[in-house]
């Protein structure tokens, strides 16, 4: 460090330094002489210029997640239409916003003007918490207002202030306070989100809260002395820059280093020499208490390997620099130029020359959206948080494809499909070479475990759950993000698939469609390019809009509630007369010598286990572990999670088709991706949901046996034993799979073979088992273990399946729960028989073969059993009690009506509490009796589908003719996304509540997406849309017709009816730029989910 030549030179430099500094660190207290009248006049002037901002982040990006919020801003340039607010309000991402100008007078804030106009983001600072919106000044027609002048130089300790802002989006509030500090450290909000640094903050106990972010902090003259941020007041450099006449865009320079202001006492302990301290104190403003010290350096940045934590900054370009403002002014004026830093490191003076980097160059302004994931270069903000270099490939939101592989948010992608990934273009290049269904490795690291790479297997979407990958680029001149396709037209991901060839079900030929094996090379038809929907997170609850300044929107779509359980079943091949044959194994081809050796080794290894029981050895080759993922873009039918595990059992295995039975708490909806892992052979292949029973708790998943390769000869179907039914005291073997695909078994005894289920409806209606009798055991493996119940020879008598329920602790508190019970195998064997023999239902393409699938005739009435002793108290006659006891001397019960499904043929005929005594004059005592009566109707060629029920109602016997309903096993096959809400036909769990709106019930809102128009305006789930702009929408077709007429940016009037019957009318603004309307529909001809754009911006 050079010594000063003379006292004269020292005095001259001190004077010069003081003149250049624009704000004192701790100015002396100034007496506040303002009167109440002065404040009243100032507020009358200020309040009209304060605006309430309603912002919507349509996607996750950088430090922010998708969501909607309220905040505050204020007019700083009336002529140009510029509003100043916080950066975390403007957001670094795609922000749709409007401002509602509200005026009041005097100390009583009454809203006398409500004009809502659109605003567009024009600047957000990469580091500091300020940004600007722009609006059209001519759009304000009825309000007289003036811009608020900026006066950061007026801030001083003890200054009385007022914070004028939005109180949770409801009204303008005025909060009083006093400035207590001007040199507070920038607050640390989140370790993985936005944080301000390299600046001072003010501190005042003003009591602000969410919604007040961006509020002006004014003095008694009506001048803004600071900007409210994070419930703390901020005296940011940006305010000073504005006061000095700088215009947007701001040149911003950075060394990618974070500095802290530390007191001289601490700096001395860091090794600061006394002569250096004397120099700095003389050259600094009066009251200076410390210096700038390096806190952290971003890897591979300009300061990397030049500056170290603990370095004390003495001079910058020859000028003593102790304040953030002066340092940043010098850096901003030296972008792309070199600057000289004189520092002390442990008392040793050093001089380094660094090139100032353009701060905007390390702030991403584009991103890739693929399968709901948002991927972009790592920003300076997050690079500083995570200690990674800027520009590497960063996952802001994993979406579906990456979430399915287990890639978390904030991951850094290092390798994809075996190729190194250092830039986003590398990732796009690899992606463009992949086909639908391809499975490729991906390596990533995370900031929580930065020293180890993790490797996962990514499966490219087979179905068209999402639109093709696209690039979004920010355009600050328009305030929008421009979107364009990212893949070349010759990309396999966009190439058409091979049309399947129809085959006779009895034929043993193999389809021309290539089998989907682990590395699926068969491309499928892809829809044309269209704007992405960007569903990153979805909700079913009536969640309120977040208004906290730094809060993130939590999404339940990202929540992984994994079921870890096993389902075991046996497979037998049934003949049309319901007789059961021995299980058969059909070899697809003669494996070569090498394959035979592999099989012998594997079979020998499995046999070594072995103190296993006969039943366990017989069942193990039939067991399958299923991993199920549900896309967030189409979580239908109230499904409560995106990820499930469970064990299934092979019930059919031939050359052309394999079928696995599993409970519906593992495979809940057909809109899902299923992967099968076989206990008999180490291979993982995809499966397709082909049947969901509308009543019973089981689903059927098909797989292609040719995909098993050599394993097709060791995988086999289990033998089913539907008769005789299990009885109390019977001994059974409970067999299941562990997560490591190891069979586990134990002996148990049946304690109740006919326990009736009574599962209540969940807050968000989803499938629940009704009209079912299940089997209870004396001992099992707990509620997380599922499997099969077999006899001692390994013949399957029941599935030990998982059931979903919800435990409610209060009106607002509930918890998802699951339990396991035995499901008798008879219903599964009946459905299997119909599939094999050829049902009379709609055809479905399975492994390239069109097969007719069964229809199920049911009485859509929820029933529950009542003991005959109770029924006698209700007046049931002795003759009927004797007849029911004779029919079933074990159960001694009668079935009563709990309710009819809304829209069913039994509705308005049967009433709650009716006792069902007989069907077609035959007494009935259990649910199976009713099922058998319904199936008997299908055997009658001239039947009208009606049953004659004898019921007991209020002391009288009544004969009623009640119609039955026919349901398929497809589940919901059509879904529409409009303005970010997922609408569908009401599923059976909704209809089971017994209510459908008379105005129309075909457009049920199942989910809503964060950051969408429906999130912003409050059109949440669990309600029907019955009118749009006064036009009825009784079904999905009518809804599509009406919404296609609405243009981009139009306000829409929507009438809804909630599940509780409450009607509501609301308005929302359609946004086709970020939220185009699209439809997803299952095509049975190709067994593919196809996506079609309904309306989007051209």
UniProtKB/TrEMBL annotation:
- What SUPFAM superfamilies does this protein map onto? PDZ domain-like, Trypsin-like serine proteases
Report domain PDZ positions.
257-358
User: In which organism is this protein found?
Assistant: Sesamum alatum
Here the segments flagged for biased composition (Basic and acidic residues) are 547-559, 579-590
Q: Alphabetically list the UniProt keywords.
A: Hydrolase, Protease
- Family of this protein: Belongs to the peptidase S1C family.
Gene Ontology MF annotations? serine-type endopeptidase activity
| InterPro entries found in the cross-reference section | PDZ, PDZ-like_dom, PDZ_sf, Peptidase_S1_PA, Peptidase_S1_PA_chymotrypsin, Peptidase_S1C
- Provide the GO biological process annotations: proteolysis
**Can you name this protein?**
Protease Do-like 7
PROSITE patterns in the record, alphabetically?
A: PDZ
Write out the ranges of the annotated region (Disordered): 532-595
């Amino acid at each position: 460090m050079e010594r000063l030549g003379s006292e004269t030179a020292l005095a001259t430099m001190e004077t010069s330094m003081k003149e250049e500094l624009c704000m004192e660190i701790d100015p002396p207290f100034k007496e506040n002489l303002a009167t109440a009248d002065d404040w009243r006049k100032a507020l009358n002037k200020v309040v009209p210029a304060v605006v309430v901002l309603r912002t919507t982040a349509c996607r996750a990006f950088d430090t922010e997640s998708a969501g909607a919020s309220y905040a505050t801003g204020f007019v700083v340039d009336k002529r140009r239409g510029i509003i100043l607010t916080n950066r975390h309000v403007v957001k670094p991402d795609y922000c749709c916003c409007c401002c509602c100008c509200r005026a009041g007078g005097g100390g009583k804030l009454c809203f006398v003007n409500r004009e809502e106009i659109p605003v567009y983001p024009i600047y957000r600072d990469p580091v500091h918490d300020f940004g600007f919106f722009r609006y059209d000044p001519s759009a304000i027609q009825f309000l007289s207002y003036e811009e608020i002048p900026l006066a950061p130089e007026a801030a001083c300790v003890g200054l009385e202030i007022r914070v004028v802002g939005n109180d949770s989006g409801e009204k303008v509030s005025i909060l009083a306070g006093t400035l207590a500090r001007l040199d507070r450290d920038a607050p640390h909000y989140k370790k993985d989100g936005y944080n301000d640094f390299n600046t001072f903050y003010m501190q005042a106990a003003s009591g602000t809260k969410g919604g007040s972010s961006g509020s002006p902090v004014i003095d008694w003259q009506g001048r803004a002395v600071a900007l409210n941020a994070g419930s703390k007041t901020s005296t940011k450099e940006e305010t000073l820059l504005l006061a000095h006449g700088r215009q947007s865009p701001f040149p911003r320079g950075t060394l990618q280093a974070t500095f802290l202001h530390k007191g001289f006492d601490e700096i001395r302990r860091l090794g600061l020499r006394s002569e250096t301290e004397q120099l700095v104190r003389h050259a600094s403003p009066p009251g200076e208490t410390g210096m700038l010290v390096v806190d952290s350096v971003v890897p591979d940045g300009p300061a990397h390997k030049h500056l170290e934590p603990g370095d004390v900054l003495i001079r910058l370009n020859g000028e003593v620099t102790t304040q953030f403002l002066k340092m940043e002014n010098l850096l901003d004026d030296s972008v792309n130029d070199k600057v000289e830093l004189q520092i002390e490191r442990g008392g040793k003076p050093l001089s380094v020359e660094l090139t100032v980097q353009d701060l905007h160059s390390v702030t991403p302004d584009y991103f890739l959206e693929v399968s709901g994931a948002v991927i972009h270069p790592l920003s300076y903000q997050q690079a500083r948080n995570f200690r990674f270099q800027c520009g590497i490939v960063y996952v802001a939101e994993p979406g579906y494809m990456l979430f399915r592989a287990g890639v978390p948010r904030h991951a850094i992608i290092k390798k994809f499909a075996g190729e190194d990934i250092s830039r986003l273009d590398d990732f796009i290049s690899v992606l463009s070479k992949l086909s639908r269904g391809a499975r490729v490795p991906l390596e990533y690291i995370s900031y929580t475990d930065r020293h180890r790479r993790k490797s996962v297997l990514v499966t490219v979407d087979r179905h068209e759950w999402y639109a093709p990958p696209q690039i979004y680029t920010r355009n600050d001149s328009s305030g929008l993000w421009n979107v364009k396709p990212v893949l070349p037209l010759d990309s396999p991901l966009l190439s058409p698939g091979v049309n399947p060839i129809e085959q006779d079900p009895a034929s043993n030929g193999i389809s021309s469609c290539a089998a989907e094996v682990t590395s699926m090379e068969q491309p499928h038809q892809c829809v044309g390019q269209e704007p992405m929907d960007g569903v990153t997170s979805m909700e079913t609850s009536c969640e309120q809009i977040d208004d906290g300044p730094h809060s993130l929107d939590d999404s339940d779509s990202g929540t992984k509630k994994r079921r870890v359980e096993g389902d075991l079943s046996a497979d037998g091949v049934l003949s049309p007369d319901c007789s059961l044959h021995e299980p058969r194994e059909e070899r697809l081809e003669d494996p070569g010598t090498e394959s035979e050796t592999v099989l012998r080794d594997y079979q020998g290894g499995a046999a070594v286990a072995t103190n296993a029981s006969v039943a366990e050895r017989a069942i193990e080759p039939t067991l399958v572990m299923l991993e199920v993922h549900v896309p967030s873009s189409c979580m239908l039918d109230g499904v409560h999670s995106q990820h499930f595990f469970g064990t299934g059992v092979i019930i059919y295995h031939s050359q052309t088709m394999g079928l696995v039975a599993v409970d519906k708490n593992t495979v809940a909806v057909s809109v899902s991706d299923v992967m099968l892992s076989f206990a008999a052979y180490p291979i993982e292949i995809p499966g397709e949901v082909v049947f969901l029973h509308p009543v019973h708790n089981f689903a059927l998943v098909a797989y292609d046996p040719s995909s098993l390769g050599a394993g097709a000869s060791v995988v086999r179907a289990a033998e089913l034993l539907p008769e005789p039914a299990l009885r109390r005291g019977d001994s059974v073997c409970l067999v299941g799979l562990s997560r490591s695909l190891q069979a586990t078994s134990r002996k148990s005894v049946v304690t109740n073979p006919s326990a009736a289920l009574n599962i209540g409806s969940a807050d968000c209606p989803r499938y629940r088992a009704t009209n079912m009798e299940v089997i209870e055991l004396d001992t099992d493996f707990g509620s997380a273990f599922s499997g099969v119940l077999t006899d001692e020879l390994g013949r399957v008598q029941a599935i030990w399946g998982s059931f979903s329920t919800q435990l409610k602790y209060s009106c607002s508190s509930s918890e998802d729960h699951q339990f396991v019970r035995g499901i008798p195998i008879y219903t599964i064997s009946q459905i299997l028989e119909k599939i094999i023999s050829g049902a009379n239902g709609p055809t479905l393409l399975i492994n390239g073969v069109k097969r007719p699938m069964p229809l199920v005739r049911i009485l859509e009435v929820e029933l529950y059993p009542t003991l005959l002793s109770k029924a006698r108290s209700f007046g049931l006659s002795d003759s009927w009690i004797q007849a029911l006891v004779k029919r079933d001397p074990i159960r001694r019960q009668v079935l009563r009506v709990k309710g009819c499904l809304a829209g069913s043929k039994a509705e308005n005929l049967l009433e709650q509490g009716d006792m069902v005594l007989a069907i077609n004059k035959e007494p009935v005592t259990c649910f199976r009796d009713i099922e058998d009566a319904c199936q008997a109707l299908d055997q009658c060629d001239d039947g009208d589908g009606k049953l004659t029920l004898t019921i007991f109602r209020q002391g009288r016997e009544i004969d009623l003719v009640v119609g039955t309903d026919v349901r398929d096993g497809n589940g919901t096959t059509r879904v529409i996304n409009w303005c970010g809400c997922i609408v569908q036909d009401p599923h059976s769990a909704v209809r089971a509540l017994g209510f459908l709106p008379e105005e129309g019930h075909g457009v049920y809102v199942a989910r809503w997406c964060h950051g969408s128009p429906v999130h912003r305006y409050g059109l949440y789930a669990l309600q029907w849309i019955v009118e749009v702009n006064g036009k009825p929408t009784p079904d999905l077709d009518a809804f599509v017709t009406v919404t296609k007429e609405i243009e981009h940016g139009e306000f829409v009037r929507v009438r809804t009816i909630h599940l509780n019957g409450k009607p509501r009318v609301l308005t929302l603004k359609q946004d086709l730029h970020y939220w185009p309307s699209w439809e997803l529909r299952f095509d049975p001809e190709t067994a593919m989910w196809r996506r079609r754009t309904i309306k989007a911006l051209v």
